[in-house]
Amino acid sequence: MTNAADNVVVDIRKLWTVFKNTDGEQVVHRNLDLHIERGEVLSLVGGSGTGKTVLLRQILGLQKPTKGVVEVLGQAPGELSAAGAANVGMLFQHGALFSAFSVLENIAFPLRELKLLPDDLIRHAALVKLQMVGLEPQHANKSPSDLSGGMIKRVALARALIMDPPLLLLDEPTAGLDPEASDSFCDLLRGLHRELGLTVVMVTHDLDTLFDLSTRIAVLADQQVIVSGTAREVIAYPHPFIHEYFLGGRGQRALEALHDKPAPRPEAARAEER
Ligand SMILES: Nc1ncnc2c1ncn2[C@@H]1O[C@H](COP(=O)(O)OP(=O)(O)OP(=O)(O)O)[C@@H](O)[C@H]1O
Question: Which residue range or ranges hold the ABC transporter domain (predicted)?
Answer without folding.
Answer: 13-247
